[in-house]
Amino acid sequence: MELDELRQAWQTLGHQLERQQDLQWQLLRDRKLDRLRGYLRPLVWGQVLQILLGIGLILLGIACWSRNSDVPALLATGIGVHVFGVVNIMLAGITLGRVSRIDYAAPVVSIQKQNAHLLQVYLRNSSGCGLAWWIMWLPVTMAFAGLARIDLAQQAPAYIWSGILVSVIGLAGTWFYLHRSQRRRSANGQATQVDANAGDGGDGIRRGQRLLDELARFERE
Amino acid sequence: MADSTGSDFGTLLQQHRGIVLKVANSYAYGTEDRADLAQDIAAQLWRAWPAYDPSRAFSTWMYRIALNTAISWLRGEGLRRRHAVPLDEELHEPAVACGDTHEEAERLHLLRRFMDTLDPLNRALLVLYLEERSTREMAEVLGLGESNVTTRISRLKQRLRDWAAANGWC
Question: What's the Rg (C-alpha) of chain A?
């Protein structure tokens, strides 16, 4: 047995070790990305529900404006609800599009960017459609009443005015809450933490972002 | 002195990661110990990076630090092992890939067994020899004279012959 005969074995060992390391990295990556998919699943279901809600709003809106084309207030209410339904579907569709466009085979940095973009889109969606409900509940109840050709603006103005008051208070209260929690998170240094509970429903995406950060750190190390 | 950025270090480390893996595999037993040692080596390389002289070969610098770290680690490990139950090292060998022949697997096994019989310095010498480093580079990495390296390699060759004969692997 000569020392030179072991060189071939040494080279084989080198290849094996690199293969093994690549395999371990791939397994880790697959495991983390599976978890990311899991975190995004509730978001997907939420968007599907938003689409169904949008369809319901469109049907309600159409039923309202088609039956009350001679009552301007109900006609406008029906059209408003109809448009709100379309906006709900569009924003949910855009969010779902972003989720489906995440390329899990791409480099981690690229997935990080896609996920961050998804968070932005989702936050616009949730603030656009979520906060709007403080206002839109009123046209929706008016549209339901409109199905029976009842014009609440004419027949129950007190209800409308008190509804508007509730809407304004609710909007102001929500804005105040979000603003205060944002300030509190900034003061605690959590504003940059991707896992911080912001109370805006985007926590699954943020948890995913934290996973991706871990993966990117591991890749660098 | 290295004036390069951390990303240069990362790229070089990635290019020469085989050195870290092979040195860790030569000195540590078990998957976790190997991973720990590889991480220690990477950490030492990062600490020493600001003092790296780019006019000299990166691989030589890397071998020196990797082998010094591994030798220190093995000495510490020796102390730990006296108080620990030994693992069946065969269970922790890198998996033999499907493409590897029986002969290759046998030689790998033999290489590992022979390495186990060597002291840390001779093990480092064997690693450098198997990596086909020049005598000058080996001397530089190990801090020995070139003639000393040549003598030690001759002894190592004889030692392998004797060991193989004694174990029926001629």
Answer: 26
CATH, range B1-94: 1.10.1740.10
Q: How far apart are CA A21 and CA A41, in angstroms?
A: 30
Q: Is B115 on the interface with A (CB under 8 A)?
A: no
pTM exceeds 0.80 for this model = no
Residue A11 lies in a domain: no
Distance, CA of B23 to CA of B34 (rounded, Å): 9
Chain A residues in contact with B138 (beta carbon < 8 A):
none
CA distance A140 to A64: 10
pLDDT in tens, chain A (221 residues): 687 888 888 888 888 888 888 888 888 888 888 888 888 899 999 999 999 999 999 999 999 999 998 889 999 999 999 999 999 999 999 999 999 998 888 888 888 888 888 988 888 888 888 888 999 999 999 999 999 888 888 888 898 999 999 999 998 998 888 788 778 877 765 554 444 455 566 777 888 888 788 777 776 66
> Would you say the ipTM is above 0.85?
no
Sign of CA dihedral B66, B68, B71, B74: negative
**Residue in A with minimal Cα distance to B109:** A9
Number of domains, chain A: 1
A13 belongs to a structural domain: no
**Is the Cβ–Cβ distance between B20 and B69 less than 8 Å?**
no
Q: The domain containing residue A70 runs over which residues?
A: 32-220
Set of chain B residues whose Cβ sits within 8 Å of the Cβ of A17: 18, 21-22, 25, 94
Give domain limits for chain B: 1-94, 99-170
Distance CA A14, CA B81 (A): 26
Write down the CATH number for the domain with range B99-170: 1.10.10
